[in-house]
Amino acid sequence: MPRRKSPSAVLFAGFNYTFLIGMALLCLAPLVHVLAVSFSASSAVTAGRVTFWPVRFTLESYRFVAEKPAFIHSVLISVERAFIGTLVNMLLTILIAFPLSKESQAFSRRNFYTWIFVFSMLFSGGLIPWYMVIKGMGLLDSLWALILPGAVPVFNVILLLNFFRGLPKELEESAFMDGAGYWRTLWRIYVPLSTPSLATLTLFALVGHWNSWFDGIILMGTPDHYPLSSYLQTMVVQMDIKSMIGSDLAALQQISDQTAKAAQIFLGALPILLVYPFLQRYFISGMTLGSVKE
Predict the structure, then answer these.
(1) CA distance 237 to 231
(2) Distance between alpha carbon 292 and the CA centroid of its chain, in Å?
(3) Percentage of the chain lying above the pLDDT 70 cut
(4) How would you class 40 by CB atoms within 10 Å of its CB: exposed for 0-12, middle for 13-18, buried for 19 or more?
(5) Distance CA 44, CA 22 (A)
(6) What does each C-alpha distance from 233 to 159, 184, 211, 238 come to in angstroms?
(7) Using one digit for the tens of pLDDT, what is the confidence trace for 99-156?
(8) Closest to 97 (Cα-Cα) out of 175, 194, 188, 170
(9) Is the backbone of residue 126 left (phi > 0), alpha (psi -120 to 50) or beta?
(10) Which residue ranges run through the membrane (predicted)?
């Protein structure tokens, strides 16, 4: 027979579930409110009648946003940046983490290079030298200015090298006995066995590129080259719907600054919300397996 839990254990478990469910609802509440505002009529939002359910449901705000070339262009730039930037991040992370995961007998300078990367994570040259280096390399106002400065995520490298060090050394030794070199061992053994950790780091890199807005504002010369997060940080905050749609009373009843901003914010978060469920099952196991080794 299954062992009955004591009343104190049942009470403690009930408190934990209640607390965690409450925290989850608090985290979801802002997103649900933004979604409700984006689907509501302007008059209902202005009157403060919208909480967590649309009032006078309408898709006019999304139609208005979809017809804005600047918003669509910024989305395409963010998609391109996230795709290329994540590929660059993951490739360099794998290529750096693999040799640094070896013992000192196999790679005598391992500790030296490891501390160089750790030092770069703890200390930086500052904003002005960072900008001057990018400008001196001729990367300003280009997509590579958003990718190359952060091409090596040191925190991800540390997580992955710890994961690599946790894999059985016998796998590598047997591969060497069969005639495989380091390159073949990396791509045929280490990478396939590291799927949970790689999926976690891919999610980190993808979210980082998608949400980054400061570098776009600093490094892009014109708003036409802004990624989506930079566009939302500047254009949406300063947007005046009335100046865009004039005196069209019917449109003003359906669209306002609040509804249009809510629609753009939700559309900006939607890609990450769609991608995350497919990688979430790897998230906890990847973090755990990559963080328990020295």
Answers:
(1) 9
(2) 24
(3) 86
(4) buried
(5) 28
(6) 31, 45, 11, 9
(7) 998 887 778 888 888 888 888 888 888 888 999 999 999 889 899 999 999 899 999 9
(8) 194
(9) left
(10) 71-100, 112-131, 143-164, 185-210, 262-279
| Structure token pair of residue 84 | 């290329």
DSSP assignment of 204-224 equals HHHHHHHH--HHHHHH-SSGG
Tokens 């010369």 correspond to 221
Burial class (CB in 10 A: 0-12, 13-18, 19+), 218: middle
* Residue among 156, 51, 138 nearest 93 (CA): 156
Output the CA–CA distances (angstroms, integers) from residue 292 to 63, 189, 199, 282, 288, in the order listed. Answer: 49, 21, 18, 16, 7
Q: What is the per-residue pLDDT across 253-276, written as a single tens digit (0 to 9) for each?
A: 556 777 877 888 888 888 877 877
**Contact in structure between 138 and 74 (CB atoms under 8 Å):** no
- Which amino acid is it at 279? L
Strands (E), 247-287: none
Spatial separation of the C-alpha atoms in residues 132 and 139, rounded to whole Å: 10
**Tokens found for residue 278:** 């497919």
Maximum Cα–Cα distance for the chain, whole Å?
Answer: 78
Quick: pLDDT tens for 3-31. Answer: 677 778 788 888 888 999 999 888 888 88
List domains and CATH numbers for the chain.
60-289 (1.10.3720.10)
